[in-house]
Amino acid sequence: GQVIFVPVYSHIYQGDKQEQFPLAVTLSIRNTSPTYPIIIRSARYHNSGGKLVKQYTNGNIQLAPLATTEFFIPQQDSSGGSGASFIVEWVTDKQGVTEPIVEAVMISTSFQQGVSFTTSGRVIQE
Question: How many Å apart are CA 54 and CA 111, to the nearest integer?
Fold first, then answer.
């Protein structure tokens, strides 16, 4: 298993006055193994100051081969800030399981403007 850090943004700044542009966030965890399940032990959402905002899992979630699970933060939820992050922990009891893909998608269509981008998770502990 691994612990994965995923940077996310509940808002970005726009214009000369650093106006906040709110974003919806979808964290996506994809099991890349065609054969074996993995277990998602936790998905924890932290704000810009590093404080835990929300624990998105209550116990283990089994993710079937090639399956995906998602966690959503609404656009109106600004509790994370521009430096928010998820910490995802996964495990398996099988040998040779491929690493999951853990990404976040941020999107907004506010103010007759559309913004979307992705970020990728990085392993911080094996």
Answer: 28
